[in-house]
Amino acid sequence: xxxxxxxxxxxxxxxxxxxxxxxxxxxxxxxxxxxxxxxxxxxxxxxxxxxxxxxxxxxxxxxxx
Length: 65
Prior knowledge:
The chain has 65 residues and is α+β, with helices and mostly antiparallel strands. It has one helix and three strands. It has one helix at 44-51; strands spanning 12-18, 21-25, 40-42. Strands 1-2-3 form a three-stranded mixed β-sheet, covered by helices on one side. Strand 1 and strand 2 form a beta hairpin. The longest helix is centred in the C-terminal third of the chain and has 8 residues, at 44-51.
């Protein structure tokens, strides 16, 4: 978490964009539809790639496909 505390779920490649909301890896059966409390969850390889280009505070816009 931004305050240094540990997130309760096993997530990786975390890029925060608004307080505790982040783009990150979280294992799901599928992606691309609402299923979290504000985060953008991605498959591991995509989250790893995004991590390198999303510094803290990056503007993130989520739109339907």
